[in-house]
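User: Show me a protein chain along with its predicted structure.
Assistant: Here is one chain, sequence first, then structure tokens.
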Amino acid sequence: MNKQAVIKKIFDNKIIAIIRGVDRSLIIDVVNALVNGGITLLEFTFDHVNENYVEDTISKIKLCKKYFGDKVYVGAGTVLSVEEVEKAIDSGAEFIISPNVNVEVIKTTNQLNKVSIPGALTPTEVVTAYEAGADFIKLFPAGELGKNYIKALMSPLKHIPFLAVGGIAPYNFKNFLEIGVAGVGVGGELVLKSAIKEKKYDEITRTAYKFTKNIT
């Protein structure tokens, strides 16, 4: 997938579903439920607690790309090293999301012509990441930071596109868009663990629609 096409997709669709801790056998059903609700940007996270976290995550990325093809845009999350960048992209990841600012991770992502989304908290971190080549800056945890902090941080940095991640729910999603973020990342408030456990995938579709109906 062309890098600029992925960037445009993020600007247009605004919601990245964070898929964390979902068994590989359930991935197709979960992604299908999200797609039916209008969400096609998907982040599969590296779980560094799991001994086989790299193999587990890249297998899910490959499975998703094989089954859904160009219907979805798939990325890797919690990427902490250059090695993880390379393995994720080799498996089909089109964007790389990190919780921190690691300049080498950003540069490697750029060298491989994929979308870089590091996490930052302060103006210094934001500018450092952007100057290193980040395409978007992830502000995390957005819910705890609050809209006032995010709005104040963004004010002198309007040339930088931000994504708000953490604490985003259907009831406050639109409020974050109104303060000027380019999009959001949503985990537990969208990829509902209770619905997955009970295999009530229609609940995920309905929740996805609660988000997507607010995109203008």
